[in-house]
Design goal:
The structure is a homodimer of 319-residue chains. The first copy, chain A, contains 13 helices and 14 strands. By secondary structure, chain A is an alpha/beta fold.
Chain lengths: 319, 319
């Protein structure tokens, strides 16, 4: 079975780890990762979601934190602060920095990000085909209420998503193209999964790459999503601030409606919600969705595997 | 008094540190540094001679090693080796890497190397005006006997200068221009010093920048050199391999003749040699040079200061 996942960072990585535990190696899993959070920092290319996926699936992630490396240190960052260049709110861990340096070297050698990612992933053996959504430099910027436009990471990490925002834009999005393998991973899939990633700045950014939404609406594979919102709050992170910025309520129902049902021009066929959101599942079923409420908090790998099984069974895809 | 020094790495840095101890802060010292050893490594810009000067004059150098940072560690380098990208023979220390990252960020922001160097040096307060020879990317390559052309650092660090070479070339040298301040530092100087740096790949590379040699031959300031060769061997490093490659004997006399006397179209007026090379000084005096033999091994800062005093007095410039 070919399974394709559209993923942001921590939530998508933990879901995919559960999915792999469920389906094993005889199935072919492709992860299309958001790269809108990427940035050039101190001259090196940082790709937060790709790295979170690589470290999580490769067994090297800082488990409690959800991103970055286990046993990380900050010797370079501490020293760099001595030069007083700014961006001191974004710390580059020493181990993580090695990844950024390797990536930057390969990019500067002229390799596209997709090939660079394959080279880096070869070390971590994530058990999936890991694809950036695009080889182009697309970066998510936040449009602030005060008129400024800042990089998403600055809003997210530095300001903890507290600066009032009225929307998001992706730089270079009009001319961006999906990375090699992205569209075929959608058209050839047996099932496509939208994991509990940020619907706005993770999945939403992937969907904004020209061609991706069409590939999703036209694929023969069913598309099932897992709600990142449980009981009116994001499972993790500050997705509520992103949803609010684009005028979507932070509820499992509103996010499903934001994605939309494929039969109605959206991208999903099915929506898995947490048991506390059973009423939302009922509403969705009433208007033709496949939907079900299950315990959907990914507390550990076996739980994530069970949630993945629930998602697949919702569209009759059992490994 | 305005003193300008044409410097490579360790030898020039230690000499300049002695010079500063001698002349104090009421004199104005400008160091024009070789940047031919610079390279892009893992996507960051490494400038070995500028950094050795900055760390040595800023009191942060690894004293025994002569270059790099005191208390250096290799956490990033060790981790980077896991990606197996090659160049593992050139280790980036963690503290040193912070400098490269800061430099790379500023370069990528569009600042020329001379301004970047001023920004970095502001942290280290080297007590001199530190100038790269050029803002252009000029890199010294080694022409090997087997026909290959490799970066100087690969020849020097990886192969310990043991691969037979038949010469050196500087990339982009024809179109390179001296960095802002370089030519005026030579024309306006009260004295110019060529410290015991590598005559071929350090001082020779600076001299190859169009305009620098002319500025030296035409300045009103006397130009005094200190021999990097003592008793037929380089004081430090493998300068003999460089001299051999260009057909110059590794003797204090041959190096002086290679630089040449300004009255004969060369760049020097005076040449300070070690006491073991007293015969060379006598030969040079016989053909019109100012030359003197003194204990010229820079064993510590006071000794380097005394050697600097001897060099200045050879051209009647006493602080």
């Amino acid at each position: 079975m070919k399974i394709t996942v559209l993923s942001g960072g921590v939530g998508g990585a933990r879901f995919t780890r559960g999915l792999l535990a469920l389906v094993g190696t005889e199935h072919q899993v492709t992860v299309i990762a958001n790269t809108g959070d990427d940035m050039w920092l101190h001259g090196v290319r940082v790709c937060p979601d790709l790295d979170t996926l690589m470290y999580t699936l490769g067994g090297a992630v800082h488990e409690e934190q959800g991103w970055g490396r286990r046993g990380e240190t900050r010797r370079v960052s501490d020293e760099l602060a001595g030069y007083d260049l700014g961006w001191d709110w974004f710390t580059l861990g020493d181990l993580d920095l090695a990844t950024h340096l390797a990536r930057t070297e390969l990019l500067r050698d002229g390799l596209p990000l997709s090939q660079v990612t394959a080279r880096l992933a070869a070390r971590w053996r994530p058990g999936v085909t890991l694809l950036p959504m695009t080889d182009d430099e697309v970066e998510t910027h936040v449009l602030l209420d005060d008129g400024r436009e800042i990089h998403f990471e600055e809003w997210w990490v530095r300001h903890r998503a507290t600066l009032p925002a009225r929307g998001f834009v992706q730089t270079n999005i009009a001319t961006a193209t999906p990375a090699p393998g992205v569209l075929s991973a959608l058209s050839d899939a047996d099932v496509v999964v939208v994991p509990p990633s940020n619907p706005v700045v993770s999945v939403g950014t992937i969907l904004a790459i020209p061609g991706v939404r069409d590939a999703l609406t036209s694929t023969d594979a069913p598309v099932v999503g897992v709600s990142p919102v449980v009981g009116g709050a994001p499972v993790r992170g500050m997705a509520d601030a992103c949803l609010t910025a684009i005028g979507v309520e932070t509820t499992a129902l509103a996010v499903a409606q934001h994605y939309g049902r494929r039969a109605d021009g959206g991208i999903l066929d099915a929506w898995l919600v947490d048991e506390v959101d059973a009423p939302a599942a009922a509403v969705l079923r009433g208007v033709g969705w496949a939907s079900r409420a299950v315990p959907a908090l990914m507390t550990d790998v076996p739980t994530a595997a069970r949630i993945a099984a629930d998602a697949l069974s919702l569209v009759d895809r059992r490994p």
